[in-house]
Specification:
Oligomer: single chain
Helix content: 25-40%
CATH architecture of the largest domain: Alpha-Beta Barrel
Distance between the termini: 23 Å
Number of strands: 15
CATH topology of the largest domain: D-amino Acid Aminotransferase, Chain A, domain 2
Order of helices and strands: EEHEEEHHEEHEHEEEEHHEEEH
Structural class: alpha+beta
Largest sheet: 8 strands, mixed
Shape: globular
Number of domains: 2
Number of helices: 8
CATH class of the largest domain: Alpha Beta
CATH superfamily of the largest domain: D-amino Acid Aminotransferase, subunit A, domain 2
Length: 297
């Protein structure tokens, strides 16, 4: 996970010099917000997928978290992402912009701290592995519950929130699965540890209710696509009752960008049922490969 340059508060810094002090409150308290963005190869060079939308969501997360006077607008951050990708010379890469508390705030008051902004890029292909992209994901229903909105700000991509995801993902991998499906505090399907979740029923995409989930940039395009669009997105879903017959799928930029991965097995604990993931294989993987092969960011 190395590159040539990292963008830090308006400057491109050599990778080895892009450091954060040990006493940064971002490390101790998880005081940061971030985005996960992808750049894809195109005939004109790397193209960033929805750079402006990602920059706007980053700023939205910062405001929800309570950061003030950010100093950068969405256009500034989108340009900075482009400059960082260009400086590193990657034809395709993962992009990680972060707004983090660099100093102060030791009394747990954000207003007493100083925040900084950084953008790193690196080559990161399949988040869940090549087999998951080719065959589908084996997932279990996690014993961990997604945050209640009044416990953590679920509409902001806050670094500290991801301890919840880390616990769930580690548990699932240790049980032999690829990913965890998390339920909300009311027992309905929420999302996976780093991806939005979709269900296919009667040939149509259905998205779980968005009340407790972090709505991904790729979630809205999925709801709008072609004859598979659901007339009632956001319907609460109880995945344990529906099981794999509902055709769950994962979608997120971390696992490869504007692509859907079918879940070929869903279970609780150490038990799972498997399926071919056929509804999503045709709908998701084939379409994703065509988009990437055609170099459309």
């Amino acid at each position: 996970m190395e590159s040539r340059f990292v963008w830090m508060d308006g400057r491109l810094v050599p990778f080895e010099q892009a450091t954060v002090h040990f006493l940064s409150p971002a490390i101790h308290y998880g005081l940061a917000v971030f985005e996960g963005v992808r750049a894809y190869p195109t005939p004109r060079g790397p193209g960033i997928f929805r750079a402006r939308e990602h920059a706007e969501r980053l700023l939205h997360s910062a405001r929800i978290f309570g950061l003030r006077e950010l100093g950068y607008g969405a256009a500034d951050l989108a340009l900075a992402m482009s400059q960082t990708v260009a400086a590193n010379g990657y034809p395709a890469c993962y992009i990680r912009p972060v707004i983090y508390m660099a100093s102060g705030a030791w009394n747990l008051n954000l207003d007493t701290g100083r925040h900084a902004v950084g953008i790193a890029v690196w080559e990161w292909t399949q988040f869940l592995g090549e087999e998951a992209f080719a065959r589908g994901v084996r997932a279990n229903v996690s014993s961990f519950t997604r945050h209640h909105p009044n416990v953590m700000m679920t509409k902001a991509k806050i670094s500290g929130n991801y301890a919840n995801s880390v616990l769930a993902k580690t548990e699932s991998v240790r049980l032999g699965f690829d990913e965890a499906i998390m339920l909300d505090p009311y027992g309905f399907v929420a999302e996976c540890t780093g991806e939005n979740l979709f269900l296919v029923k009667d040939g149509k995409i259905r998205t779980p209710d968005s009340a407790t989930v972090l709505e991904g940039i790729t979630r809205l395009p999925a709801d709008r696509r072609g004859p598979h669009r659901s007339p009632d997105p956001g319907d609460p879903a109880s995945l344990p009752r529906r099981g794999v017959r509902s055709g769950p799928a994962l979608r997120g930029l971390d696992h490869g960008g504007d692509a859907r991965l079918p879940a070929r097995g869903v279970g609780r604990g150490e038990r799972s049922r498997t399926s071919s993931g056929a509804p999503l294989r045709k709908l998701g993987i084939d379409r994703a490969k065509r988009r990437l092969d055609n170099r459309r960011p």
